[in-house]
Amino acid sequence: MDWGMKNRLAQLIQPDGHCFFLPIDHGYFQGPTRKLEKPAETIRPLHAYADGLFVTRGVLRACVDPADCPPIILRVSGGASIIGKDLSHEAVTTSMQEAIRLNVAAVGMSIFVGSEYEHDSLVNLGKLVNECEDHGIPVMAVTAVGKELEKRDARYLGLCCRIAAEFGAKVVKTYWCENFDKIVNGCPVPVVMAGGPKCETQREVFEFVYDGMSKGAIGLNLGRNVWQDPYPVAMIKALRAIVHEKATVSDAEDIFQDEKKRAAS
Questions:
Q1: Within a domain: residue 258?
Q2: DSSP strand pairing (139-143 vs 19-23)
Q3: Could you report the average pLDDT of every consecutive run of 10 residues in the chain (265 residues)?
Q4: Which end of the chain has the smaller Cβ count within 10 Å, N or C?
Q5: Residue 212 sits in which domain range?
Q6: DSSP label at residue 16
Q7: CATH number of the CATH domain containing 194
């Protein structure tokens, strides 16, 4: 692996081998998602606790302070919306020249294994990796499921992650599920957990994050379960403790409650 590639990955993956990425890219297909209507306001109290920010170029330029932000993972795929016919009908929408111009640490795109546009998304991943290797930029592949949430099981997600790694992704973002170790054990590159739909309680989030970390994930790429929480700073601090400090679920709950009291005082 070339020096530039190693350097960019080292910006994102911390010395303990773990990472916490904060995604705010939801608007590229969902529009003004709840609590993300004004991205600058949402991330202002949170970005100091993130190891990386997953964001589109439009929101990056409009809402992120270039003098005060974590390393950037640039969302470079798109082309479908939540009201469109098929969320899987994506293409690469952002050039490597843009990624270099924006000084990003990595780029990310979605793949839709098993969908009508499986071939397109995988070929797009391969082409993106080719370009990024020329410039020393890591690719994070996102194993998206579109609207078909029932696909979130270890067999399907394990297939997706392995394919993404075979195509050259340096990191794979996938959903937590039961038997998460099967996904990690079958993927030769690091795996980070996505959150998916917002959980009902904070403890639910802490439990799946703790389980995934104990089964081999290197970290998180978690958005809605953080910034849609009534106490987002408390949430990100508690989750960061699981990722970087080996905190238990109970430890995380204690941190959350302490931070919640501090915020309310």
A1: no
A2: unpaired
A3: 95 98 96 96 97 98 97 97 92 97 98 95 98 97 77 90 98 95 98 82 96 97 96 98 98 97 84
A4: C
A5: 3-228
A6: T
A7: 3.20.20.70
Among 112, 109, 122, smallest CA distance to 86 is for 112
| Burial letters 108-142, b for 16+ CB under 10 A, else e | bbbbbbebebeebbbebbeebbebbbeebbbbbbb
pLDDT of residue 220: 97
Domain count, the chain: 1
* Dihedral in degrees, nearest 10, Cα atoms 47, 50, 55, 57: 60
Q: Is 198 a catalytic residue?
A: no
Pick the catalytic residue from 35, 151, 173, 260: 173
- Quote the pLDDT of residue 197: 61
31 within a domain of the structure (yes/no)? yes
Residue 17: inside a domain: yes
Give the whole-angstrom CA distance, residue 188 versus residue 136: 19
Q: At what angle do helices 232-245 and 249-264 cross, to 10 degrees?
A: 150
Q: Is 248 helix (H, G, I), strand (E, B) or coil?
A: coil
